[in-house]
UniProtKB/TrEMBL annotation:
One of its GO terms (cellular component) is nucleolus. GO terms for biological process: rRNA processing. RNA helicase. Keywords: ATP-binding, Helicase, Hydrolase, Nucleotide-binding, Nucleus, Ribosome biogenesis, RNA-binding, rRNA processing. It holds the Pfam family DEAD. Residues 78-252 form the Helicase ATP-binding domain. Residues 525-535, 684-701, 712-723, 751-762, 770-785 have a biased composition (Basic and acidic residues). This is ATP-dependent RNA helicase. It catalyses: ATP + H2O = ADP + phosphate + H(+). Residues 1-24, 504-535, 586-613, 684-798 are annotated as: Disordered.
Length: 798
């Protein structure tokens, strides 16, 4: 059977023509749009992902990742997000918030037929690098069948490598600081067509630590976009919502109607332990739970490092790890992966781990240091009891923290039960820590830093009803760390000493003058009895400061008269601080001038001031060194009045660089606020235009470079395909060779008029053979026999 002729369209692998496949894809998108528009947000009939109007690539990715049943937050958030509404989501930790915004991101870009040429379509911000990595991994799993390109921008890598890949990305998962850096420095990053902005752990991103960064990022983004905010403790402040330009957001809350904000499968307890016994209790707990997976939260990275190093030396019998923000990105990633893969281990960490991270099968969450607020507590305990699994959390409280912290937890509907420690099973490690700190200076140094960082963290806490620094037994706490003494801390005495230290001396003196009705200043009274005496305090407490020595009185009066007469003579100048000596040959009336010793046209008056025709203000000579320097023309030129920098307008009129405008003209142009607004608008428009032109120039430059590269590659290909020149050996010397080219010879085979110069190797027999060959002569041989002689003679006769 003869094969059929190929049609006008190429066929795909399954035999369906490509235009037909594209047509079917358009029909699928149209059908999907109709199903999405028919969603009733109030109808909560969606139980599985199969019930939602999702595209085939998303459905396949969810099924391959074993996501089938919708959680409560997903039931409420995904339908509204598919319709394009702004979302403000609050749900318990471990409730599936990540899929609640990743599925709408993929679906909305798919229904808009997004391609790599459309630029960045979705931006997902995360407060920590670990959480950003986790979000990206989930995105890779459920989006494996989509054609979108996704990127992870978290820092810790080369900015140049990230910059080369950003221009092709459709979805970016990033941290705020690194993203702002690319927005400012990467010209190829196109964000003008952004469709969706997602903030995971939004309350942490929008607090004071990231506020300026988030504001700068939002200024770069287009106003017309969809914004989604998710967190376990969501913000409702109008100012935060206005900064992000949310329009009628849908507030999705799961735990408002519940009894508390934490999962019901989480068992929460607290113990009251003195500060000096915290490490003993923690060591005893770890020794009693060697077959468990534990996370221990501390308030600072220095504490994490000290506790990790100390416990590692004592070998509790359980693998130990530590994680804090000061580590390198590669180290943090390795520790996160190792802890996730382990079955039994203990992780010492700061609050960098407290938000969003999903560690599988965590049994215990221990909060060795009290969290700063109830929201931080909720996020910390959320590392266990995830996805309806069971978990346990224990909070260590110092006696002064118990009442205040329990009150804060009750306000957030968090219920914790008090438990006691069995004293028989508790072990003391204070002596072991002291021995280790004595033998290892580095460990002692870490302990000192841990002590200082803990006290500072308590001092900086805003909630003073919970954190009471004055009631903490710091000396006992220092001894429990194994330190030989209590490290000194500058602000350890409270706010009163800090305020007094920062108060200007003039303010302190004036306040003392007002309080003292007799006019006698008692500067030592401002240092209270309960405050330490410092060097400056003892200095101001000295008595008889108004009794001056004889040499001091003579110095002030210059040995000629009283201090009052000297002040009148100097016309109010500052006494001995103004002039150290006087010239002996000055005139009495001060009107005559004497000639200078040099030729610089400089003269001295009676008050020892240098006068010159080129210097308007007199120069005061108060030392021999200065008088010697002024004998140089170069040094005198420095003292001359310098000219002002002028600028010329269009009419050629000179103006100073900075000069005040005419008040009437300024008022005529409108109110200052209006002028400022117009100026800012004009500058923004100019910057926007310049940004567009810069990006266009950058793209044109890249296209030109690509064109040059292609041209070079084409020339290399042509050079490889060109014919090679043949080498012909000389008759006289078989070892040498010379290229033979037809262009060097005439039609008759003779050399051109101008003979080629000889090379260094063309000598002797080879040179003669070459000349004979070029002239067409035949090389004759010497006759050896009679027959040869007759043949040569016959040739000559003819």
């Amino acid at each position: 059977m003869a094969p059929q002729a190929a049609g006008p369209h190429k066929s795909g692998q399954n035999g369906v023509s490509r235009p037909l496949k594209r047509k079917r894809g358009v029909e699928d998108v149209d059908t999907l749009d109709k199903r999405v528009k028919a969603i009733d947000v109030k109808d909560h009939a969606f139980e599985t992902f199969a019930d939602l109007p999702l595209s085939q690539p998303s459905a396949s990715g969810l099924e391959a990742s074993h996501f089938k049943i919708l959680t409560d937050v997903q039931k409420k958030a995904i339908p509204s997000a598919l319709l394009g509404s702004d979302i403000l989501g609050a749900a318990k930790t471990g409730s599936g918030k990540t899929l609640a915004f990743l599925v709408p991101v993929l679906e909305n870009l798919y229904r808009r037929k997004w391609t790599e040429y459309d630029g960045l379509g979705a931006l997902i911000l995360s407060p920590t690098r670990e959480l950003a990595i986790q979000i990206f991994e989930v995105l890779r799993k459920i989006g494996r069948y989509h054609s979108f390109s996704a990127g992870l921008v978290i820092g810790g890598k080369s900015l140049k490598d990230e910059r080369e890949r950003l221009e092709r990305m459709n979805i970016l998962v990033c941290t705020p600081g690194r993203m702002l850096q690319h927005m400012d420095q990467t010209a190829s990053l196109d964000i003008g067509n952004l469709q969706m902005l997602v903030l995971d752990e939004a309350d942490r991103i929008m607090d004071m630590g990231f506020q300026s960064t988030v504001d700068a990022i939002v200024e770069h983004l287009p106003q017309k976009r969809q914004t989604m905010l998710f967190s376990a403790t969501q913000t409702k402040k109008v100012s935060d919502l206005a900064r992000l330009s949310l329009k009628d957001p849908e507030y999705v809350s799961v735990h408002e109607a519940a009894d508390n904000a934490t999962p019901s499968t989480l068992q929460q307890n607290y113990i009251v332990t003195p500060l000096s016994q915290k490490l003993d209790t923690l060591w005893s707990f770890i020794r009693a739970n060697l077959k468990s997976k534990i996370i221990v939260f501390l308030s600072s990275g220095k504490q994490v490092r000290f506790v990790y190093e100390a416990f590692r030396h004592m070998q509790p019998g359980l693998p130990l790890m530590h994680l804090h923000g000061r580590q390198k990105q590669s180290t943090r990633l390795d520790i996160t992966n190792n802890y996730s893969a382990s079955k039994h281990s203990c992780l010492f960490a700061t609050d960098v781990v407290a938000r969003g991270l999903d560690f599988p099968a965590v049994d215990w969450v221990i909060q060795l240091d009290c969290p700063e607020d109830a929201d931080t507590y909720i996020h910390r305990v959320g590392r266990t009891a995830r996805y309806e699994r069971e978990g346990r959390a224990v909070l260590f409280l110092e006696p002064s923290e118990e009442e205040g912290m329990l009150k804060r937890l009750e306000q957030k509907r968090v219920t914790v039960e008090k438990i006691n420690v069995r004293q028989k099973k508790q072990q003391s490690i204070q002596n072991q820590l002291q021995n280790m700190c004595f033998k290892d200076p580095e460990l002692k140094y870490l302990g000192q830093k841990a002590f200082v960082s803990y006290v500072r963290s308590v001092h900086l806490q805003k909630d003073k009803e919970v954190f009471k620094l004055s009631e903490l037994p710091l000396e006992e706490f220092s001894a429990s760390l194994g330190l030989p003494g209590t490290p000194s801390i500058k602000f350890g005495k409270g706010d009163a000493m800090k305020t007094l230290k920062n108060t200007p001396r003039s303010v302190q003196l004036s306040s003392d003058d007002e309080d003292d009705s007799d006019g006698n200043q008692d500067l030592g009274s401002k240092f209270k009895a309960d405050q330490p005496r410092t060097k400056y305090g003892r200095m101001f407490e000295r008595r008889n400061q108004d009794v001056l020595a004889n040499h001091f009185t003579k110095l002030v009066g210059d040995g000629k008269g009283s201090r009052d007469d000297d002040e009148n003579e100097l016309d109010g100048q500052a006494g001995f601080l103004s002039v150290k000596r006087r010239l002996s040959n000055a005139s009495e009336d001060g009107s005559e001038l004497r000639a200078a010793e040099n030729t610089n046209d400089i003269v001295h008056d009676s008050d020892n001031k240098i006068m010159s025709s080129s210097i308007k203000e007199p120069i005061l000579v108060d030392s021999k060194r200065k008088e010697k320097l002024l004998k140089s023309k170069k040094n005198v030129a420095k003292l001359k009045e310098k000219g002002k920098k002028l600028v010329f307008d269009e009419d050629g009129t000179a103006h100073e660089m900075y000069e005040l405008q005419d008040e009437d003209k300024f008022q005529a142009r409108g109110a200052p606020d209006e002028q400022k607004a117009r100026f800012l608008q004009a500058e923004q428009e100019r910057l926007r235009t310049a940004d567009v032109s810069d990006k266009a120039a950058e793209k044109a430059k890249r296209r030109e470079q690509k064109a040059k590269k292609k041209a070079r590659e084409a020339m290399e290909v042509e050079s490889k395909e060109a014919p090679q020149v043949e080498l012909v050996p000389f008759e006289g010397d078989e070892g040498d060779a010379e290229p033979l080219d037809d262009t060097d010879m005439d039609d008759d085979g003779a050399d051109p008029a101008k003979e080629r110069p000889k090379k260094w190797f063309e000598k002797g027999i080879a040179s003669e053979a070459l000349s004979r060959r070029n002239k067409g002569d035949r090389e004759t041989h010497k006759p050896e026999t009679l027959a040869d002689l007759e043949a040569m003679a016959s040739g000559l006769l003819t």
